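R.M. (postdoc): so does anyone remember the format we settled on? I'll just put the structure tokens first.
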């Protein structure tokens, strides 16, 4: 009897504690630790949701227009209200969790999902940023906020150490999976191959980074592929049109530093994704080779950061798609 009474008291107490938490420190914690959840209400009132990592905005706003790709799209489509999730280093899993938090009654008609080729590779999937992002994901989950906060305190998420993630990445890079000659059959051997002098040469360092980011062959076993599958399913459930945007990569620079063995893999992977996503019912814009090297702002690491010319070019491809479909 005492146990039953205690369970009943606890069952009555927990909702009250959750209510108290929501109306006191919850918002401030979200602002500090999981701020994108605060954007869900704003996004729910728009026509088009644009999901992205840092590719949407300019990394150098002092020397050019600070407008995001999503804002340039909005300029060309003034009849549409476009809002964006902008979460640096994020990917499909995070965006899908946030999309699920949008009320089914929202006015959203279209979701634009950015697809970074790098996000399918071992380096991104095992980045040291994954642990803090996974921590935020706990707060994004559709559970009572107090329970989410309790789970965070218990480290109820994938919180591998930096060393663990590094070892996983190295193991994947050592696997012989590339359809190339023996010295290029895996990432580690390809990076060890002589190019542009020894490892102190900046060109050599950048060439090796391109190999580490893009030297893989996509297939159904890739974890990020299945994260996008989950996004496709939520869009089908909500009857949202889904536009998958395969982001421009610096094909020109990769070719000049590494050669066609790598750029062929990049284009091949983008084409594989395009066909797969179309087969799943999504609309696809494949811009992998849209931009010249001059449009990429980062010069010492391959990223999807574009100058204003690049962002405007990308936006125009979306604008035409939104108008014609």
């Amino acid at each position: 009897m005492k146990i039953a009474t205690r369970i009943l008291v606890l069952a009555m107490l927990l909702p009250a504690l959750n209510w108290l938490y929501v109306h006191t420190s919850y918002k401030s914690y979200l602002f500090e630790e999981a701020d994108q959840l605060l954007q869900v209400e704003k996004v729910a009132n728009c026509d088009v949701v644009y999901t992205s990592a840092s590719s949407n905005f300019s990394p150098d706003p002092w020397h050019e227009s600070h407008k995001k790709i999503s804002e340039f799209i909005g300029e060309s489509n003034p009849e549409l209200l476009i809002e964006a999730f902008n979460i640096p280093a994020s990917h499909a899993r995070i965006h899908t969790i946030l999309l699920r938090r949008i009320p089914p009654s929202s006015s959203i008609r279209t979701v634009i999902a950015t697809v970074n080729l790098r996000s399918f590779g071992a380096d991104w999937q095992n980045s040291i940023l994954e642990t803090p992002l996974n921590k935020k994901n706990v707060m994004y989950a559709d559970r009572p906020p107090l329970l989410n906060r309790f789970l965070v305190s218990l480290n109820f998420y994938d919180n591998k150490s930096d060393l663990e993630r590094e070892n996983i990445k190295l193991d994947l890079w050592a696997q012989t999976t590339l359809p190339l000659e023996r010295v290029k059959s895996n990432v580690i051997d390809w990076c060890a191959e002589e190019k542009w002098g020894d490892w102190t040469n900046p060109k050599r360092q950048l060439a090796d980074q391109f190999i580490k980011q893009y030297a893989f062959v996509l297939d159904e076993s890739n974890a990020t592929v299945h994260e996008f599958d989950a996004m496709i399913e939520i869009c089908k459930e909500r009857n949202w049109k889904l536009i998958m945007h395969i982001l421009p990569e610096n094909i020109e620079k990769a070719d000049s530093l590494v050669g066609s063995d790598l750029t062929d893999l990049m284009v091949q992977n983008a084409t594989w994704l395009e066909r797969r996503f179309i087969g799943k019912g999504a609309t696809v814009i494949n811009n992998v080779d849209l931009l010249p090297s001059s449009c990429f702002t980062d010069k010492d690491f391959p990223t999807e950061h574009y100058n204003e010319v690049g962002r405007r070019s990308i936006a125009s491809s979306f604008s035409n798609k939104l108008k014609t479909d």
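R.M.: ...and that's the designed sequence above, right after the tokens. Also worth knowing: The first helix runs from residue 2 to 22. The longest strand covers residues 110-115.
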